[in-house]
Specification:
Elements (H helix, E strand, L loop, with lengths): L2 H12 L5 E6 L2 H8 L6 E3 L1 H9 L9 H12 L7 E4 L7 H14 L3 E4 L19 H17 L5 E6 L2 H4 L1 H14 L3 E4 L4 H4 L2 H4 L5 E4 L11 H7 L3 E4 L2 H20 L10 H7 L2 H10 L10
Parallel strand pairs: 1-2, 1-8, 2-3, 3-4, 4-5, 5-6, 6-7, 7-8
Helix pairs in contact: 4-5, 5-6, 6-8
Amino acid sequence: MPSQAAAKLRQLLADESRIIVCPGVYDGLTARIALREGFDALYMTGAGTTASRLGQPDLGVITLNEMQGNAEMIANLDPSVPLIADADTGFGGSLMVARTVTEYIRAGVAALHLEDQPTTKRCGHLRNKQVVSEEEYLGRIRAAVNARSRAHGDIVLIARTDALQSLGYEEAISRLKGAIRLGADVAFLEGVTSKEAKMVCEDLKPTPVLFNAVPGGVSPDLSVQDAEDLGFRMIIFPALALGAVYGAVHDAVRNLKKTGTQVVRAGSTPRDLFNVVGLQEAIALDMASGGQLYKNGV
């Protein structure tokens, strides 16, 4: 059932002795690689989804259908591992926010986060972000909470604010507290500096707070242990896979252009790759059905 993933995530959040570590993935391959390492949860990055599906920057150009479809595919690779997914601004007014929440629940997503930028948003670690009024933002949260109650399912709602840089800490905290009063489950203060990182968890107790680990971004480069020591209950690494793939592919194509050959890496045969994305499971499924497709191996 779609609510099982949310229930699992709520169990993890209830354990105050640990922090939930979520590697950032953006497609089936990166998700499968992360799943093999045994993380408790995954995070679907909106920036990575936009870059991989559209070849575009994270500037609010992706649609609900594209984000929901990607989230549904990732969430159902292994439904026992909760997926936290970016939902940007909810993709419109209150009706679109309600639709977004409903579609994410139906997709099997365990949690989503909604932010207070305008729909023409930008990555949270770019400069000169704009935010909507607190009233409009809380209207989004209210629409999300109401949609969840009507959806015959569950999803963990993460309230994100980008107001820190333009409006200051007190205004940002006010927005998050308002969202929590309406029914948000987790708070997400985007773009925290070292100063705010030391205050936000204490100021929002007992609500769990998420830390967004973006190397080279606005916030400090905290390790999992650093974040846990500060009181954060969840940490996402949205650029983890995207940055690694960018670096590796950049080097590979440059080497091909320069030398006319490709570097052969150990463990990178077609079989190795297909095993990561479920080759053995597919063979077992066919055999259990009485199939003969792979009786002589592959």
